Amino acid sequence: MGQQQKSSRPLGFLACGAAGALWGTGFFFGKIALREVSVGHMVLFRFLFASLAVLPLAVRSREPWSRKDWLILAVAAFFGVPLQFLIQFQGLSMTTLAHAALMIGTMPVILAAAAAVFLHERLDTAGWGALVASTTGACLIALAGHSNGASSLTGDLLVVASLVIALVWILGNRNLLNRHNALIVSSRSILVGTVMMAVWVCLQYGVPPTHGVSMKAWASLAASGVLCTAATTVLWNWGMTQVPASQAGVFLNMEPVIGSILGVSVFHEKLGPLAWLGGLMIVGSAFVLTTRSHSSAEVATLAPVE
Predict the structure, then answer these.
(1) How far is Cα 151 from Cα 296, in angstroms, rounded to an integer?
(2) Distance separating alpha carbons of residues 281 and 124, to the nearest angstrom
(3) Rounded-to-integer distance, Cα 201 and Cα 197, Å
(4) Nearest in space to 285 (alpha carbons), one of 97, 88, 112
(5) Is 152 in contact with 94 (CB distance < 8 Å)?
(6) How far apart are CA 133 and CA 173, in angstroms?
């Protein structure tokens, strides 16, 4: 038994690393799709593709769910799918990929603060230092010079606001994970959230287009759904069964790093000195929290947020 666990640990780290890397490409694919479709239609297509991929997982379980479980799932899914992602990608449409990706790096710190407030977990000196540093870094990025008007303070703040909204999704899923399989919870959350998303988007934006969208945009939409949502859910949740949460949490830091690198290298976005400094402060703070704080790392590993 011990030998099997030891041999699975490298694969667990590989799975968590792959999930972190794929999450880092979510905004990249989103930016490509947003050139041809609206925010609402882009997010809906993303989750429709994700739903097709996770459907077999959602229906395979025969374990009983109470009415309370379904209610918790519905509330969490509403906050975590339509509300979070529509606000988050509205922010992305108003700012640069690099700015949005670096703002995502504040999530571990937001989670640590939420754990202290809602779960009564105590932050040590390093934790409070990381909280202050990350907040300062986010302010530096948001208030730094915006190159060619491509980024905006409003867009940056919408991305951060979506992360605060995601707390309801994460904490709600945490409650369900105490009683149910992680893959079942995640897949059903995606499916229920997608149904809510479809109703919301069709009423707000109209029926999504199926003609006049290039193959490049369709490929980006499919990749964001299958790779950045469905595959990351499976990889992350399986990886978390093989490695400690306090060690796996560090892979969450790959998301802002990869996203900002793609923005600078592929889209030729520019980050000023203050934005680079802010990004280093955010990623450094997240690294400290996910390697030194076991409790905050465990909360951080419960659900994807981008």
Answers:
(1) 31
(2) 18
(3) 6
(4) 112
(5) yes
(6) 28
> What span, in angstroms and rounded, lies between the C-alpha atoms of 166 and 69?
19
Are the CB atoms for 79 and 192 separated by under 8 Å?
no
User: Phi, psi (5° rounding) for residue 95?
Assistant: -140, 180
In whole angstroms, give the CA distance from residue 6 to residue 1. Answer: 9
212 torsion bin: left (phi>0), alpha (psi -120 to 50), beta (else): left
Residues 6+ apart with CB under 8 A from 85: 43, 46, 47, 162, 197
DSSP 79: I
CA distances from 104 to 87, 112, 193, 194 (A): 13, 14, 21, 22
At 130-172, the pLDDT tens digits run 778 877 887 777 666 555 556 788 898 899 899 889 888 877 7
Separation in Å, CA 110 to CA 132, 251, 286, 288: 11, 16, 10, 13
Query: Which tokens go with 234?
Result: 């499976």
Locate 151 and state its tokens.
Answer: 């980024």
| Angle at CA of residue 165, ends 12 and 177, nearest 5° | 40
The tokens describing 296, both together, are 């905050």
pLDDT at 71: 94
Each residue's pLDDT tens digit, 79-100: 999 999 999 999 999 998 888 8
Q: Identify the segments of the chain with pLDDT beneath 50.
A: 1-7, 294-295, 297
Question: Does residue 262 contact residue 97 with C-beta atoms inside 8 Å?
Answer: yes
**How far is it, in rounded angstroms, from Cα 17 to Cα 172?**
25
Alpha-carbon distance of 29 to 225, in angstroms, equals 10
Q: What size, in residues, is the chain? A: 306
- Closest Cα to residue 33, out of 209, 217, 219? 217
d(C-alpha 193, C-alpha 242), whole Å: 28
